[in-house]
Design goal:
CATH superfamily: STAS domain
Distance between the termini: 21 Å
Structural class: alpha/beta
Number of helices: 3
Largest sheet: 5 strands, mixed
Order of helices and strands: EEHEHEHE
Number of domains: 1
Radius of gyration: 12 Å
Number of strands: 5
Helix content: 40-55%
Shape: globular
CATH class: Alpha Beta
């Protein structure tokens, strides 16, 4: 899994690509936290359009992002969710906790 960060005006875009599974989740969490700590954004957008597979580790990653943004009094939006990942998020009811577009 790869993560590309773009930051401007307290907005942070994280573009994720590849597989978000238990093998890459630990590193992805670390990268996510480092990117948030460096940018201290008010708005975080997770772009999942490049994700080819996601399991429950992706749910954990999104929830971690949500927690970090709440600590910063910021917001989180998830966008570009592929069909397979969308099924995982819908099954877990993540849309009730996080804005998904």
């Amino acid at each position: 899994m790869e993560m590309n960060a773009k930051s401007a005006d307290r907005n942070l875009l994280l573009e994720l690509s590849g597989e978000i599974d238990h093998h890459g989740a630990r590193n992805a969490m670390r990268e996510l936290e480092m990117a948030i700590d460096a940018a201290l954004p008010k708005k975080l957008v997770l772009d999942l359009s490049g994700v080819t597979f996601m399991d429950s580790s992706g749910i954990a990653l999104i929830l971690r992002a949500q927690q970090r943004m709440q600590l910063l009094d910021g917001s989180l939006m998830v966008c570009g969710v592929p069909q397979q990942a969308r099924r995982v998020l819908d099954a877990a009811g993540i849309g009730r906790l996080v804005t998904i577009r």
